[in-house]
Design a protein that fits this description.
With 368 residues, this protein is α+β, with helices and mostly antiparallel strands. Helix content is 33%, strand content 20%. The protein is built from nine helices and 19 strands. The chain has a six-stranded mixed β-sheet, with helices on both faces. Helix 3 (85-95) packs parallel to helix 4, helix 6 (141-162) crosses helix 7 (171-184) and helix 8 (247-265) runs antiparallel to helix 9 (273-286). 47% of the residues are buried. The model has no long low-confidence stretch (mean pLDDT 95).
């Protein structure tokens, strides 16, 4: 992997050099991990001038979940654990007589920005912007392989829960059990806080599990994902508890299922982000559910669970191949509950079979 990280850093170097900066400082943890192989707590990555340096406030603990630093990088541990690696990086750039440094202004606090200026007052600070996030957008096959394993783990955890007795158990208990099962199957942890919603809570996006107990006839919505080697996936499913579903539950489920399928089928290279959103949203709008729909139909996943692209009505841009995204439309009826169906897929050209579905748990409306 060292060669992969070196290539990524080389691409970034080309970008900031072309913009007139002598060096770049990467502080956002996911971006540090993407370029350095690991992101120890508090670590920052300085690219040039000279060699690239990973600066850490304390020695890395060797936690596999946080990755392993690229051996081609120089690793520098600050002499005092309460020191700020950002300030140390500014001092290092100053000592090398560089006159400019590109920084991630969207990640730096004003206080840290001022602290850098205090140790290197003549250093010109430029905005690196979202350059690293743009590099992260298209995944290589090794990244996709990690996402594929994360999805397999997630499917396993969800499948085992569906085989257990659910009536009488609380949303909170079910969420904790799902997260334990993720780890049991090899995840480094959950990709995000697991959501379980029953009855009137079902179908809500990112519902925080409560002490409400599962009852006969409820809709049960779950949304979970595994974190595997830093890469995160997402799955959401809705089921009916105990009995055959009511007519209104079947109709609502069929509608959301059709919207989700339309969104998945729209995932082709070159498709506009907003067109993917429109494909799913149009069906829900036409059925009278425009009010209360979530802001976007899906989003990118990778080293973060919610990254670009955003599949939203006003989003600008077009899909590339090898971009993993979620498609997750849902409808929630206040006081009654609702349906949410969520998959993680990788955009692929039609010649390669179209979008690759990573989360494969059945989308049939099951009565559990």
């Amino acid at each position: 992997m060292s060669e992969v990280y070196a290539v990524r850093r080389g691409l970034l170097r080309d970008r900031y050099s072309a913009a007139g900066s002598a060096a770049a400082l990467v502080t956002r943890p996911a971006n540090v991990r993407y370029l350095a192989g690991a992101a120890p707590p508090g670590a920052v990555l300085l690219l040039g001038p000279g060699e690239d340096v990973l600066l850490c406030p304390r020695p890395p603990a060797g936690d596999p979940a946080r990755g392993r630093p690229d051996e081609q990088l120089r690793l520098t541990v600050l002499p005092a654990p309460d020191g700020d690696p950002v300030v140390a990086a500014a001092g290092l750039v100053r000592s090398l007589d560089a006159d400019s440094l590109a920084v991630e202004e969207h990640d730096l606090t004003v206080a840290r920005h001022r602290a850098m200026a205090s140790v290197a007052p003549h250093l010109r600070l430029a905005d690196l912007g979202f350059t690293v996030e743009q590099l992260r957008l298209v995944k290589d096959e090794e990244e996709i392989a990690c996402l594929r394993i994360a999805a397999e783990i997630t499917d396993q955890a969800l499948g085992e829960l569906l085989e257990s007795i659910l009536v009488g158990r609380t949303e909170r208990h079910l969420a904790l059990e799902l997260e334990r099962r993720l780890v049991d199957h090899g995840a480094d942890g959950p990709a995000f806080p697991t959501s379980v919603g029953t009855g009137p809570h079902s179908g809500q996006g990112r519902h925080r599990p409560s002490d409400r107990r599962v009852e006969e006839g409820d809709f049960l919505s779950v949304c979970l994902g595994a974190n595997y080697r830093g890469y995160r996936c997402e799955i959401g499913r809705t089921f009916v508890i105990g009995t055959a579903p009511a007519e209104w539950q079947i109709e609502l489920y069929d509608l959301v299922f059709a919207a989700q399928r339309a969104g998945r089928e729209a995932l082709v290279p070159g498709a506009a982000y907003r067109d993917v959103d429109r494909a799913a949203r149009h069906l829900l709008d036409s059925a009278g559910h425009a009010e209360g729909l979530q802001a976007c139909t899906g989003h990118g996943v990778g080293l973060e669970i919610d990254e670009d692209p955003q599949l939203a009505p006003t989003a600008m841009g077009k899909l590339d191949a090898c971009v993993p995204v979620t498609v997750e439309p849902g409808v929630h009826l206040p006081g009654r509950g609702g349906v949410r169906i969520d998959d993680t897929l990788v955009v692929r050209p039609e010649a390669d079979g179209g979008p690759e579905l990573l989360t494969i748990t059945t989308k049939e409306l099951l009565a559990l």
